[in-house]
Amino acid sequence: MSPTPTAPGERLASRCPSGPIAERWDKRRFELKLVNPANKRRFHVLVVGTGLAGASAAASLAELGYRVSVFCIQDSPRRAHSIAAQGGINAAKNYPNDGDSVQRLFYDTVKGGDFRARESNVYRLAQVSSHIIDQCVALGVPFAREYGGVLANRSFGGAQVSRTFYARGQTGQQLLLGAYSGMMRQVGAKRVNLYARREMLDVVVVDGIARGIVCRNLVTGAYERYAGDAVLLCTGGYGNVFYLSTNAKACNVTAAWRAHKKGAFFGNPCFTQIHPTCIPVTGSYQAKLTLMSESLRNDGRVWVPKQAGDARPPHEIPDAERDYFLERRYPSFGNLVPRDVASRAAKERCDAGFGVGSTRLAVYLDFRDAIQRDGAATIRAKYGNLFQMYAKITAEDPYQVPMRIYPAVHYTMGGLWVDYDLESTLPGLFVLGEANFSDHGANRLGASALMQGLADGFFVIPYTVGGHFAGRALPPVTTEAREFEESERSVRERTERILGVRGGRTVDSFHRELGKLMWDHCGMARNDAGLRGAKERVRALRDEFWHDVRVPADERRLNQNLEHAGRVADFLEFAELMIDDALHRTESCGGHFREESQTEEGEARRDDERFSYAAAWEHRGVGEPSTLHKEPLTFEHVKPAQRSYK
Amino acid sequence: MSAAHDPHAQGAEAAMRITLKVWRQGAPDAAGRMETYRLDEVSPDMSFLEMLDVLNERLIQAGEDPVAFDHDCREGICGACSLVIDGQAHGPEALTTVCQLHMRHYSDGDTIQVEPWRANAFPVVKDLVVDRSAFDRIVAAGGFISTHTGAAPDGNSVPVPKPEADQAMDAAACIGCGACVAACPNASAMLFVAAKVAHLALLPQGEPERERRVLSMVRTMDAEGFGNCTNHFECMAACPKGISVENIARMNREYLRAFLRERPSEGGEASGG
Hints:
The complex is a heterodimer of chains A (646) and B (273). Chain A is of the alpha/beta class and 646 residues long. Chain A has helices spanning 24-31, 52-64, 102-112, 119-138, 171-188, 254-261, 325-329, 339-351, 368-374, 376-394, 449-471, 482-501, 507-522, 528-548, 560-584, 608-611; strands at 44-48, 67-71, 89-90, 164-165, 192-195, 198-206, 209-217, 223-227, 230-233, 266-267, 272-278, 301-305, 322-323, 363-366, 403-412, 415-416, 429-431, 505-506, 549-550, 613-618, 627-632. Chain B has 9 helices and 7 strands; from the N terminus they run E-E-H-E-E-E-E-E-H-H-H-H-H-H-H-H. The longest helix of chain B is centred in the C-terminal third of the chain and has 16 residues, at 246-261.
């Protein structure tokens, strides 16, 4: 049996193999046809984005003998935002002998995702997790070690086993530099062509298959066409739709959105993750938010004063007058409850008037007890760089006074819908890492993003892209084809349209307004009326953008404001889809909290009867209602239960 | 919760007046000049780049060309930001990238000069943006361990003593920003290259390619037009991650060892570095 091109009408076929879950990935790998080694160099793979998913995919595919071209918007592929991940990467190695297993990592991830992920994918993720660590060690990633020389582990983000590998507080950086070095080795060997400062603006579809991309060269302004046999989008998440997020400034939805408009369905766009341990907002000029690793919650205790508006400095508030609200509400998990639960609990306290700091939109994260117990030196060894980062931004010393934290947008579980092979509904277009919707369901566990990005790039796509090459007829195409002409013309026209508005409002002001709208109504808590109102306002704002945006008219050289304008224009279209998704899902699940669907204690109430599916939206035109397709989710191995961390 | 975005949510702080003298250069081959801008409402809690954002918003409103500068993560790890402030790469604060530099370190009435990294190997693209792709080419020449996906043994099969692992991590913390080059009177890239050489030479996994790696990286560094090291140690002073010049000493030892052991058949040109 071999993979067959998806026929119309079965576009949402997940292509998950059947049979015992532990054997499915083996089975699939056997089903996938192989590409003759001598033929591999005939196939050209276009990899967009050079974060963990893109860099690991590019390196692995080039090692197999495929021709690879990679594209990134930064000046160097090493700067992709994976680099900012701090805390660690999970793997079911069970080195600490504390009861971990593939089954347990699988179970935790499905449960943590609030039963909105595909079991087969998650199981595969848990299965390959161990190989990721081995691969990264081989690449020279300097993971933390014990004195005996073996790899160190820690517990992270609510896990009750220590399965997280880390490199100080810079795990993402070290993993990315590892994957980047593997890719750069192939660049040096001329098996990977590297194109930096390029922004993908369209996927080119020839005979129903993704066969190329059109980019803008951000330095010269020139439009460039690249033809290939498969396109891999590894372009990250869309958290910057909220303007203020922990994402890097260049993170955007553009590549995914343009692919969506070309036929790739968008999966669960409303599933966004709000991270509990971020540095609070200080002023209106704020450009982004800074996250601190939630590993801080391993030793820090979260509290607010029991008396609303208590203005005493924190150290003068005695224990009896502090409300350690996570420990109070969730005695068994305490400060280590999952991200969505911790974030909502902090918001609840602040909304009720117990917040601290000048904005009252913060709670304390206090290391006093940990420092007394372990000594400042131990705490410094574990969290020194995070404490330093906090002190730089706030001018406060967290060794002396508790940190102030508040939740911020951090990660998007939603993304382009993909099947088990990571192929989107647009044949030949594969989506990896945060850009796809798979694996994390409605909420991602800490230290699982790095795992998924590298799983997709190192261990999934090298097999599944082969199935595409071996299983489909791919007649040669060149960039002279009519489809490339049309694609370039459409992106050129869009740019010219933006430049032609010559209005009075800056791009940034539109982006900020959109972000506030989304944060207020499609953020940590959502309700019907708020979402409906926000949808109207997004439409109005989009209209205003196209009538009043002002962008410096310099198209033929580096124009960062024009880049930003294109991304904000896409966010303004995408935001409406996100709201539609949040509107239609009237249950609460994971990071998606519908105020209408909660328990008496204020916890999220899932509705498996009606919503045990992945939503996959089909584009019907800007401003037109998208068509909802549903991929039913069945749980054979993890019985859905209301999550409880009490 | 809307107050999280509320412009008036901030505490009252004294706004500062700051004069900026900024390098403006339209294109790689265009002539550059310092341009003066005055900002009246700079908050001490702003980051330096947020101040530039404010300036750019004003310039766009006024129909002028905003100042181009590289930035991305704004939390000190991606290595994109790259400004020379009053003659210092990344500005006056030790161990701090520009994106993490806050205006509270300045006073009302200050004048601040802002320039790009300056080095022949880092040509200016526009304004404060330079081309650092030479760094990528140096890494492509040898800054890796040649393993392929799937070939790795168990992660614990080769123990790495904690002190070596920690030292390797110290070196690997380099963010590739290029401040070392900008700070060096010779525009040398020795600290950047040495950090990678040391990181991989300290680990057992890096051992098999130890000699090829250092020879190839150093030769590429020279070919890219970076200067030599004459022990000013400005690089270490400017490095936002505190990468030590001890790594340069280690690289020099690695290079000498590799050079002396190099056989003509494997090295190609046997000239010095």
